[in-house]
């Protein structure tokens, strides 16, 4: 019996491979749009991980193709037996060739899939193609045990913005709000400057993992925020990150726009916050981070323009805490952002 064929559910070997593939994929969150982040581990017949790879950006090889190529280059391809993939392998020729065929051209005959692909060009087709060619394809979601369910939830969380965007054309909106221990926003008066080092670190990790930033004209005028990624290494060569400024009366200063453009932002202003998720989606951004003052955040809450809402605060004891409210119980990509401490509590507040 193959080491990964555990009739009672997920073997520790496959679980470890999924965690490695998820970790590698999440390092590329924020760089792959309009494609989803995807990770792939290739194992030999004894369950040893031969390689782990991820999709880096649209137009670059898919995770499976890169993993296979790496195995081949290292002379390990003859040992490849099992592929563990966070997303169903594609079966179409888009910017690159079909991963199903790349797998079938290798000795791999067992494929573990973490999440189904919502793309109508792929949905079900990759798994069906592999099965038709005699591969043993298993979906994590079909396994009964709780380890498998937790990993399947992480694989769904990894692509939650992509799934949402594929279905609606809108970007997934993550709102980040700083609150004081008494629940008031810190600092007050429309400023978004963070006092705490930890909160600043969170902001930079989130900016790195998302495809776009949304802010308000009030914040721009009051703070002239840089909204850049300095505290963690940004994705190499990331081009034209979208920056949407909600500005009803055309007050965006030309010099600030020019400065943001010089820092690599593609700056757009929008006079209707209800339009922002679609505007982002049309520009190919899957996931946006909203960093704004109380007026814009109140409007976003009132109009229900958010998919998850992260509050960062300091407890009365002076300890930092993060709470995440997730809309409709959907999986949140937030828990996979590298280096983001696990939220202390998951709460859900009503949309208005
Ligand atoms: C995979 N592995 O690593 C990724 C997949 O235009 P293309 O060729 O890059 O194809 C993009 C579509 O492929 C994308 O919309 C999604 O459905 C799937 N992404 N599939 O097998 C990967 N990134
Ligand atoms: Zn593919």
Automatic annotation (TrEMBL):
UniProt-listed SUPFAM superfamilies: Cytidine deaminase-like, Dihydrofolate reductase-like
Enzyme Commission number, as recorded: 1.1.1.193, 3.5.4.26
GO biological process, one term: riboflavin biosynthetic process
Pathway in which the depicted protein is active: Cofactor biosynthesis; riboflavin biosynthesis; 5-amino-6-(D-ribitylamino)uracil from GTP: step 3/4; Cofactor biosynthesis; riboflavin biosynthesis; 5-amino-6-(D-ribitylamino)uracil from GTP: step 2/4
Keyword Lipid metabolism in record: no
Keywords of the record: Hydrolase, Metal-binding, Multifunctional enzyme, Oxidoreductase, Riboflavin biosynthesis, Zinc
InterPro entries, sorted: APOBEC/CMP_deaminase_Zn-bd, CMP_dCMP_dom, Cytidine_deaminase-like, DHFR-like_dom_sf, Eubact_RibD, RibDG_C
Domain CMP/dCMP-type deaminase: 13-138
GO molecular function, one term: 5-amino-6-(5-phosphoribosylamino)uracil reductase activity
Domain of life: Bacteria
Pfam families, sorted: dCMP_cyt_deam_1, RibD_C
Family, per entry: In the C-terminal section; belongs to the HTP reductase family. In the N-terminal section; belongs to the cytidine and deoxycytidylate deaminase family.
Role of this protein: Converts 2,5-diamino-6-(ribosylamino)-4(3h)-pyrimidinone 5'-phosphate into 5-amino-6-(ribosylamino)-2,4(1h,3h)-pyrimidinedione 5'-phosphate.
Protein's name in the database: Riboflavin biosynthesis protein RibD
Organism the protein comes from: Gluconacetobacter johannae
Encoding gene (name): ribD
């Amino acid at each position: 019996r193959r080491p990964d064929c555990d009739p009672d559910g997920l073997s520790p070997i496959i679980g470890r491979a999924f965690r490695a593939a998820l970790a590698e994929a999440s390092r590329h969150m924020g760089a792959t749009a309009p494609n989803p982040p995807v990770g792939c581990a290739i194992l030999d017949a004894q369950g040893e991980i031969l390689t782990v790879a991820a999709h880096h950006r649209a137009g670059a090889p898919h995770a499976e193709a890169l993993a296979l190529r790496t195995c081949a280059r290292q002379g390990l391809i003859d040992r490849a037996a099992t592929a563990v993939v966070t997303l169903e392998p594609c079966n179409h020729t888009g910017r690159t060739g079909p991963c199903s065929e790349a797998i079938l051209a290798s000795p791999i005959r067992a494929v573990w899939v973490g999440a189904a692909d919502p793309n109508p060009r792929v949905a079900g087709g990759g798994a069906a193609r592999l099965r038709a060619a005699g591969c043993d394809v298993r979906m994590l979601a079909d396994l009964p045990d709780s380890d498998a369910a937790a990993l399947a939830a992480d694989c769904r969380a990894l692509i939650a913005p992509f799934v949402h965007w594929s279905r609606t054309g809108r970007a997934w909106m993550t709102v980040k709000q700083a609150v004081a221990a008494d629940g008031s926003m810190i600092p007050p008066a429309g400023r978004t400057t963070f006092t705490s080092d930890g909160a600043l670190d969170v902001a930079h990790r989130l900016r790195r993992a998302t495809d776009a930033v949304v802010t308000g004209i009030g914040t721009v005028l009051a703070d002239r925020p840089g909204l850049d990624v300095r505290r963690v290494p940004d994705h190499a060569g990331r081009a034209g990150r979208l920056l949407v400024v909600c500005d009803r009366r055309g007050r965006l200063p030309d010099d600030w726009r020019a400065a943001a453009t010089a820092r690599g932002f593609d700056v757009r202003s929008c006079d209707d916050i209800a339009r922002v998720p679609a505007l982002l989606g049309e520009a190919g951004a899957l996931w946006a981070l909203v960093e704004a003052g109380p007026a814009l955040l109140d409007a976003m809450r009132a109009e229900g323009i958010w998919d998850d809402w992260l509050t960062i605060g300091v407890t009365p004891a002076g300890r930092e805490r993060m709470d995440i409210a997730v809309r409709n119980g959907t999986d949140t990509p937030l828990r996979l952002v590298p280096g983001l401490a696990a939220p202390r509590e998951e709460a859900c507040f009503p949309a208005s």
